[in-house]
Design a protein that fits this description.
single chain; alpha/beta; D-Maltodextrin-Binding Protein, domain 2; 2 domains; five-stranded mixed sheet; 9 helices
Length: about 280
């Protein structure tokens, strides 16, 4: 009996010893993404190529844009530096899924999930509210908000979203296909204002430095707010939580507003509250 008990204890010890000695497989344990980032001292962020004004190469070939600057501030809040990897949109999700990047800057659309499948990515709090821009001549002092569009002629893209916005503000809408023509109508006084995407007016102003326009108001949201994408998993929960805290901190300190004014000439957070996450 004593020999049997001894044999059982010996077998148990051998089993425990073999389990402890066995190398951990990739699926046996999930590393904490935040700890790994802080350990290496940098967060690897995928960005879509040529997405003006969010991420692009400037005249000096430097990576620039609103999203790039926000990401640098986020990295600083995490106690690391940001390393950006420029990729085509089609490669953005694949690289995030196979852990080539810690995080991705999502510009154009959400990951398309097949019916019945779970989205493998998490979105952080938004770092920019996607709204339409109300654009007027620089010398226009009559229109300072969307309320002032009532019974005024406005030019919009030929897009149901912006045409509906014009109708919502009781403006008289003229749909225009070409951005140059749309802003010409504002400049020559044919229309009092334009309601258009932020990208449209920012690109036009960057290409026409002396154009006499200004953004005076923002519309209601016209699309999904911009956020960072992180791969789902137990190991990434601390990273997502820390990024969310950093975004709230940047918003409350006014840094997101400062960057909005720097890149767009208008504070698109002036009508955005902390509960819009």
């Amino acid at each position: 009996m004593r020999q049997l008990r001894f044999s059982f204890i010996l077998l148990l010890l051998l089993l425990v010893s073999s389990l402890m000695a066995a190398p951990l497989k990739e699926n046996d344990i999930e590393l904490d993404s935040l700890s790994e980032i802080q350990g290496r001292g940098e967060i690897i962020i995928a960005v879509e190529k040529d997405s003006f004004p969010w991420s692009y190469r400037d005249s000096k070939k430097r990576l620039n844009g609103y999203s790039i600057e926000v990401a640098k501030h986020i990295a600083e809040e995490l106690g690391s530096s940001a390393r950006f990897v420029e990729v085509d949109f089609i490669k953005l999700w694949a690289g995030l899924e196979d852990d080539s990047y810690d995080m991705a800057i999502n510009i154009h659309s959400n990951f398309n999930v097949a019916e019945g499948q779970e989205n493998p990515f998490d979105s952080t709090y938004k770092y920019f509210p996607v709204k339409g821009a109300v654009v007027v001549r620089e010398d226009n002092t009559e229109i300072t908000s969307t309320n002032d569009l009532w019974d005024n002629y406005v030019a919009t893209p030929v897009d149901p979203v912006y045409i509906k916005l014009a109708n919502r503000y009781n403006a008289l809408c003229i749909g225009i296909k070409d951005a140059g023509e749309m802003f010409s109508l504002v400049e020559n006084g044919t229309v009092a204002a334009s309601i258009c995407p932020i990208e449209t007016v920012t690109k036009y102003l960057s290409e026409n430095k002396n154009a006499p326009f200004k953004i005076v108001a923002a519309t209601k949201d016209v699309g999904d707010a911009l956020s960072f994408q992180i791969k789902k998993g137990e190991g990434s929960k601390d990273l997502k939580r820390s990024v969310n805290k950093a975004i709230l901190k940047l918003r409350r300190k006014g840094i997101l507003s400062e960057l909005s004014i720097k890149h767009f000439g208008y504070d698109f957070f002036s009508t955005t509250t902390d509960n819009e996450e």
